Amino acid sequence: MLIRNLIKQATQVGNSENVIQYVKYLYQFEKFRNTLNLTLSIIKQTRLSFEIYQEGLVDMEEGVCKTIRSSGLNKYVIVLRRSNPYIIVHELSHMVENELNLSLEQEFLYKVYQDIEQNLKQSNILVQKIIGQIIFKEIQVYQTPKSRASELFARYFELFAWAQEVYPKDKEYLIRTQDLNRVFLATNQWKKSYLDLQIMERIDKEVKEYSDKTAFKDINKVQSSWTNKFSPGSKKIGSIFEDDN
Ligand SMILES: [Zn+2]
Predict the structure, then answer these.
(1) H helix intervals, the chain
(2) At the top level of its lineage, which domain of life is listed (predicted)?
């Protein structure tokens, strides 16, 4: 009930039902747990709200995280023009960066590039293509190293949220969590040993208790209930990759 109540309370515009379902779903996975714990904690302090709009408006960004800075604590408005798990994760990652005041252009960016350099060549062609597209092509439109690092940070989490085990529905190409993990070795380690600790210090007591009693699901053992619309009729989402695991 905690997630439902807090997301509902934070929704200033629109219907929160889908977002509640997606946040509850994502909460089971270790990758997103702390981002969501921080989100819930900040909602309790009435510093984060959602504006949820109907799909259909063209030529607009799918989501925005507006950060309202003041001399005290920041406030955040998460605007969703399309609601799905990976847009939610993306926008909340921007909140995490601003709330923790992370200097991502230093360590995080270095870890990502280290991973790309060392691990990408060994990964399969599709992973190379998708990561290459996201990390090298699309990021280049962001002007400063800081804005590039910020966008990369959000997309790192976003990638894991549209993996085939989590939410494969909108994507033409399926990417597996374990293939992402094989690339992002140093980045994942940085998340665990640095980012998670930073977040943990800021988690509200009630949220922490809720988190402690909510079990994790092994992402490699779940079957997403949101199937890929590009492969209708296939109940089990087969791997499109040819290697044996
Ligand atoms: Zn972004």
Answers:
(1) 2-10, 17-27, 30-44, 85-100, 107-119, 125-131, 145-161, 177-183, 185-190, 196-200, 205-212
(2) Bacteria
